[in-house]
Amino acid sequence: MISTYLKPLDEVDAARADHLAFVDELEKTGYAVTAGRMDPPTGGIILLDVDTEAEAHEVMATDPYVVRGLASYAATGWHPTRGVLAGYQRAR
């Protein structure tokens, strides 16, 4: 999922602790493979382990950034075939 911030960075950062707690939970449940903020900070990327685009949107619907209207997410499908994630196995 690729996010785009919809509000000024100071408003996004005011909700960042809640967003990071949400991402922590995604990691614990095996949904988030990796995540990080873009540079410059205009959004972020969360690599999800899901089966469908609909599931990805469902998972991200409760992100505090989405709930508070601070960011939107676009899904991009991807199957790693090279590098450190080649042969990735689902954790859950």
TrEMBL record:
Annotated Gene3D superfamilies: Dimeric alpha+beta barrel
Pfam families: YCII
Xref: SUPFAM superfamilies: Dimeric alpha+beta barrel
Residues of the YCII-related domain: 7-75
Domain of life according to the entry: Bacteria
Similarity annotation: Belongs to the YciI family.
Name by which UniProt lists this protein: Uncharacterized conserved protein YciI, contains a putative active-site phosphohistidine
Organism the protein comes from: Actinoplanes philippinensis
